[in-house]
Amino acid sequence: MSLFSKRTATSPVTSYLSAFSKNDPHAVDDESSTPASSLSSSTTSDSEDTVIYDDDIDNADGLALPPRPPNSSEVFSTVHTEFGHCSNPKYRYLSQHTSGTSIPGHDDQNPEPPYYVLLSTYISYLLLICLGHIRDFVGKRMRPAAYRHLMPSDGYAPLNSDFDSFYTRRLKTRMDECFGQPVTGVAGRTIQILDRISPDFNHNQILTGSRTRALNISSYNYLGFAQAHGGCADAVETCIREHGVSTCGSRLEGGSSNLHVLAEALVAKFMGMEDALISSMGFATNSTFIPALVGKGCLVISDELNHASIRFGVRLSGAQVRMFKHNDMDALEALLREVISQGQPKTHRPWRKILVIVEGLYSMEGTLVNLPAIIELKKKYKFYIWVDEAHSIGALGPHGRGVTDYFNIPPRSVDILMGTFTKSFGSAGGYLAGNKDLIDSLRIRGHSGAYAEAMTPPVLTQVVASMASIMGIATPTMTRFDSSSTLQPSEAYHHPGPAPMSTLPTWLCLPPHLADGSEGTSRLRRIAFNSRYLHQGLIKLGFITYGHPASPIVPLLIFNPGKMNMFHRLMKDRQTPIVVVVVAYPATPLVSGRVRFCVSAAHTKEDIDTILRACDEIGDVLDIRHGVRPRWTIDQVCARALDLVQLS
Amino acid sequence: LKPRGRSGSIVKVEQIGDRLEEVLDRSAYVNINADWVNAKGAWLIHVVLICVGKLIIDTIPGMTQQVSWTLVNLIYLALTYLMFHWVTGIPFENDLHGGAYDDLTLWEQIDDGAQYTPAKKWLLGVPIALFLASTHYTNYNPWLFAVNISALVFVLIPKLPQLHRRRVRFIHDYASGVATPVTP
Lengths: 648, 184
Prior knowledge:
The structure holds 2 protein chains of 2 kinds.
Chain A: H1 12-23, H2 115-142, H3 166-172, E1 183-184, E2 190-197, E3 206-216, H4 231-243, H5 258-271, E4 275-279, H6 282-293, E5 299-303, H7 308-317, E6 320-324, H8 329-342, E7 354-359, H9 371-381, E8 384-388, H10 403-406, E9 416-420, E10 430-434, H11 436-445, H12 447-451, H13 457-471, E11 473-474, E12 479-481, E13 484-486, E14 499-500, H14 512-515, H15 518-541, E15 553-559, H16 561-572, E16 578-579, E17 581-583, E18 593-598, H17 605-622, H18 634-639, H19 641-647
Parallel strand pairs in A: 3-16, 5-6, 5-7, 7-8, 8-9, 11-14
Antiparallel strand pairs in A: 1-2, 2-3, 4-10, 9-10, 12-13, 15-18, 17-18
Chain B: E1 11-15, H1 20-28, H2 32-35, H3 44-58, H4 65-86, H5 94-97, H6 106-109, H7 118-137, H8 142-156, E2 166-170
Antiparallel strand pairs in B: 1-2
């Protein structure tokens, strides 16, 4: 038998790990705990869900096993490659806004790079555009076969307009190895990418057949619920047996089931509002329900950097639109005074409705909305607010209830809270929460009620299970009524608090660490720590980052288009491969190309150290450190992580 | 887009109008195709490129200062005319705007069509400064002066606020109104 197939106590891995834990200076100081002699934990029923396999693990990239083996007092119920193991109580932080601190406004407060960086960026784009035009011009005459889709033929117009697709053909194709990366497996703490090569400059990508496991700092997985193993996954499997795969209809035409009604009630409780509705697609939640709310004669005031789904919905509605400078409350107030005093264009009649749409957390900048200031303005000018919490729900706030929880604002003071389940709940779809009358009306008047399919039960169960894990499930208590004792379950829900058992489906059975809310709280604190640590760590290393320190989205500015591709490749080719998302013009303004890190609760402090170390090395190679001084070295940053987190 | 009746003149100035849907489409998004002129370094890049162009032209053997400055002036005016006043539309992401900018040149897109903004003042001032430099270095030679000033006037005309969204057409029958131009 081969050396590596024997599962004995004297296998090389066990002896290595027990020796390592004795000498490890970072081991938790617990005199009563002993090094683990058996490596499989028995908390979950399925022994393959466990933590560590002692054979056939290739830990050359450092991703499959935690750096420090667990001792017997630490019990983990997740797989390390999906959700990292970290039981150090110091690596937790409470996500709450300290009153009195200012909320950063628009980009004027961000540090500016030196002039040579900006000038070289302009020259790069100019060169790329000129070269692109020359190649188009020459190519259409020299090699017309390759340009047939761009030229008229046989009296027909060209298939694609060469001007409209200029950017895609000439600039994006050069960087195309960064985009459209095929992946497999669950997008948790690590992800498996399918390697590919391109023989003809990114026009065709050929899969080589091999896979690489990489550290995943690019997926929206804020609370780490993207897991293939665990309580939520088991609940989804149970649901498929109970409810099937689809309800086969739209919500208003027979596709509604009691699971939908129950999930909507749970979402309403989670948000602290009277009622909620659920839509099967996050983009469609905005684009189909904004037209139901505003129309001709109404005014929508939206932030400059709102998502495409909001703008799509506003365009569909036919309402007038005005934009205000990103997160600038003075500009918003000036705009409000102007539009209220002027009224509708040409007729100057008063507007039927004024709706201000903002996002809780902006995904490209990482800035938080200044919600207290907007609520003050609302009291003064009496408009309606729609807060799109796609990225902030679940990720901010001491109880994970989003930006209202973070700023400690009663959620009922916002008219409509909208959000998606994609980012923090490991699911799909979106919701709208508000007054009962409003939601009842939107259920009928929104496009997706009548025309879109109802949310599918397994996905809905993931929503319910993850929400119940974050909230915790309230166990029924006994109360005494006069002389007879009756069992009265505590049905009343106090926001924010645990969900009553009656609001959950009867067949839902979460494991105890998820049901009592302890795992949920731990995840919320982990992501608060991780996001602040990465943010402050990058600033101390000398990089320019945008956004609020509390945001789990950390954009790191790279500026030049040529450096994007190299950054992505250098990150992917490391000993521990890291996949990142690079975003360039036109998704961002011309000179601020960036790489966008999406921190998750599934990452451990060691993962963030890995990323900081990688940025440090690549920052020297690519010259992207233009931030403020004084700067720390990478070892100082890793050692003083707790100080860094307390700074923000 | 009503087809116009035949008019007797060879040249006509036509206003390209906008419909309500296009106004709404334009106000829904920030136009990042035209936003960069207000960013840091966008003004300095003109000076840098002019200096680099002058250095390159000076390397051509047999070049005199007069011809060099005239060439720099003409090439700068030609390229900026092409970029700001000839090309219309946005070369990416048209599903977001729905073709709302397809008739507008980059000059008309800057600052959402507002006039007398700082960016427009700078872009007006650079050709004038370059013209003054070229007349100085050509020692006021009348032929080169004539060439330079006519080029300058040609470039300054479309920058005037009176010509905002107006096109000068020479004997064109242009009724089809196809949003994306057909390549010849």
